[in-house]
Amino acid sequence: MAELISSRAWLRADLESDVSWQLEWTPSLLDALKTWATADMVAAVQNEPTSLNYFVGSAPEKLIEFAQEIRTNLIDGAGLCLVKGYSLLTSVNFAQAAVGFVAFGALVGMPRRQNAAGHLLGHVVDVGLRADDPTVRIYQTNQRQSFHTDSTDAVALLCVRPAPRGGLSLVANAEAAYRLMVQRDPALAKRMFDPVATDRRGEHAPDQNPWFEIPVLTWSGDRLTCIYQRQYIESAARFDDAPRLDPEHRSALDLFDEILNDPLVHAPMQFESGDMQFVHNHSLLHDRTAFEDHADPGLRRHLLRLWLSLPGDRELAPSFAQRYGSVTVGDRGGISVGDDLATISLVP
Fold it and tell me: What does the pLDDT average to over 230-244?
């Protein structure tokens, strides 16, 4: 593998040799979260999600510091944190554990809507749908997702139950993939900075096009920013007015995918119950392998998800407002369909 010319562009071996991105919930942190995320908080945020702001104002200092450590790693470090040992899943009821995850996530960044229904807390489960349906979001299936970013600064996942087979999480560094593209084919690498139409999958406001046009790669100062979902780029062709990929641009995306799928480039991890993963969408892409699930619905793979807007994050190009609604740091990203509905549901 050729040498990369950037301290922020890591390969799998780099990530595995420096495990500073791996953290753990200590008994002291768990006790603080359990004391903070009370039954009053659980009831309040389900009834009125904006009440989360009130509780954030009374968060224990040790949780604030832990959240800051994660946020710093996302913005200025590896772009990734794996936090193990969230034992509230077994020590308290599910509602308290789930709302504790939401509340702690709100210390890392502002929760954003993840779909047209306004869900601030997402449930990543297979509901029996197919990814080739242009109205389906791929997380609703058990199929391979492919490397992609989400439409927010960072995504947080909490593994409630892993799949019995498959379902590995894969992460890859966007700048590393780009540097390798430059080494292999500079002309194709240049095409990654051209706008490309991406399908909104039916989740958009009435005054918006059903697709947006943002380059896969843009420079944010000296930092490379990525926004990418190949399946949604392909499905944008269902709209007659959406710009089409020319052969060279398609070849550029093919090469990008090929590099991301190189096992020397991406890093795999198998979630265990109680694992939290935080991923910075501007610098990393993530993926999930296909999985086989339990026949018993009560044992099936279940992850909770948050989309977060991070204070102190990088500036984004104005074109991101098409997807993020705003490019204001700390208050951007998520799915907007022209209303301000927000909900926190504890059931998929």
Answer: 96
